[in-house]
Amino acid sequence: MAWQETVILCNACGETYPIIDGIPFMVHRTERPQPVDGGFDAIAQVYDSTLPPHVTEHYLNKRVKFISERMQRGMVLDVGGGTGALAQRMMEAGYQVVGTDASLGMLRVYRSRTSSVPVGALAHALPFRSEAFQGVVCVALLHHIAQTNSVRASLAEMYRVLRRGGTLIIWDHNPANPYWPVLMKKVPQDSGQERLIPLLEICHGLRLAGVCSVQVFKKGFVPDFVPPVLLPVLQWLEEAVERIPLVRGWAAHNVVVVHKE
Ligand SMILES: C[S@@+](CC[C@H](N)C(=O)[O-])C[C@H]1O[C@@H](n2cnc3c(N)ncnc32)[C@H](O)[C@@H]1O
Fold first, then answer.
1. Low-confidence spans in the chain with pLDDT less than 50
2. pLDDT score of 36
3. Which of 102, 135, 191, 248 has a CA 20 to 30 Å removed from the CA of 118?
């Protein structure tokens, strides 16, 4: 289907949007990437094998466990959900998940692996009504958005679409972790345009969006190069180190949890 073909009409703003391969692509025409561009469209087919399978499994299980312990079952929005690996696991755990992403290539993979239809959208302009979702998750997205204003606008959008009593979980790269510059040079999705977002900037953006209090966790020490046989030991060590004040400040991820009052 051609990019130019429009199917959806927004009666509020008059903008039209295409449905491409069954995926509503709700990105304003002035912000649409070219049909065949680099970035995530180009690497979508290999994205899921960027890390060794046992390491990918470790982080998926860790995230689903963390989310399940804090977020009620219900309708959840996965912002920058990529190929839908987390969405699929969350569905298996009893959530209904709507995935959104800016990359059509990533969304095509998402659509092929899950039973749900994802929506093309930019994080700073989510095409959903306010308070539509019981939960919002966002994993490894903000450092790709990078620009201060867009990061701020994206945080505000995630909070806007969250219903009262709902939970927002932001899981992003921790700039204090010394291994990121090494790993980011190795993986195809990182082009050098990224900016790791400091925890204080995330918290400040949330405060500007109206958030009164956040919980912060430091998560992840298992590196990509750990051999499968050593994974159980590393998992045990990771949990131990995540509990040590100061040292956990070097964890791979800042995880910010917001409960909307
Ligand atoms: C590193 S991937 C993470 C994907 C998934 N959350 C995961 O954990 O595997 C970052 C994703 O963010 C998407 N992305 C980048 N900028 C975006 C934006 N402004 N709005 C929405 N998605 C964006 C990319 O297309 C990509 O799929």
1. 1, 35-36
2. 44
3. 191
Tell me how far the alpha carbon of residue 102 lies from the centroid of ligand 1, in angstroms. Answer: 7
* C-alpha to C-alpha distance for 159 and 211, rounded to whole angstroms: 8
Q: At what angle do helices 104-113 and 85-92 cross, to 10 degrees?
A: 30
Q: How many residues does the chain have?
A: 261
Question: How far is the first Cα of the chain from the last one, in angstroms, to the nearest whole number?
Answer: 43
- Which position has the token pair 């620009």? 147
Residue 169: what pLDDT? 98
pLDDT digits (tens, 9 = 90+) for 66-96: 999 999 999 999 999 999 999 999 999 999 9
| Partner residues linked to 255 by β-bridges | 171, 217
Name the residue at shortest CA distance from atom 10 of ligand 1.
Answer: 141
The number of the ligand 1 atom at minimal distance from the alpha carbon of 39 is 25
Which is nearest to 113 in space by CA: 88, 92, 95? 88
The architecture (CATH level 2) of 8-259 comes to 3-Layer(aba) Sandwich (3.40)
Whether 85 and 57 have beta carbons less than 8 Å apart is answered as no
Which residue minimizes the CA distance to atom 9 of ligand 1? 82
Is residue 137 in contact with ligand 1, taking CB distance under 6 Å? no
pLDDT of residue 6: 73
